[in-house]
Amino acid sequence: MSHEYVDRPQDPTIIDAEIAVGIEQAGSVFGHINNFTNNLPGGFWRSQAGDLELVDSPLVRPGYVPEGDENTHSARARTVTWRQFFEDVDRAVEESGVDQLELVRLQTLADNPSQGEAQEAYSRFALPIYRLLRIWGYSPFDLQR
Prior knowledge:
The protein is mainly alpha-helical. It has 7 helices and no strands. The chain is globular, with a radius of gyration of 15 Å. The two termini are 24 Å apart.
């Protein structure tokens, strides 16, 4: 079940440029999208949110402002619960057109911390999902934490 978007969708060309700069600065897709893959189905944050019974709590605690930066979370993230966020992620997985079986296969390989190449391949494969969520109004901080 989806919910209405709070933010206006972002211009894909601007998002693409921001992603390209981020990857260049980080030196890899994995370095740029950081912990984003933990939000995908089967990812670490999914199990943590469920285990800690956070799924129906706000994605961003009301009044939370990271030290030194009041603009890190998008207005969108400030209006959804963890459950709604994960629903958006699931919808982005479907709408991005990535092969879900390949996504699971790469996730399994990337779960081994000694597999840097597998983590990069998994991140690169997940990039269209990340991109779509950015277009829908999520900030990099929302997705990478």
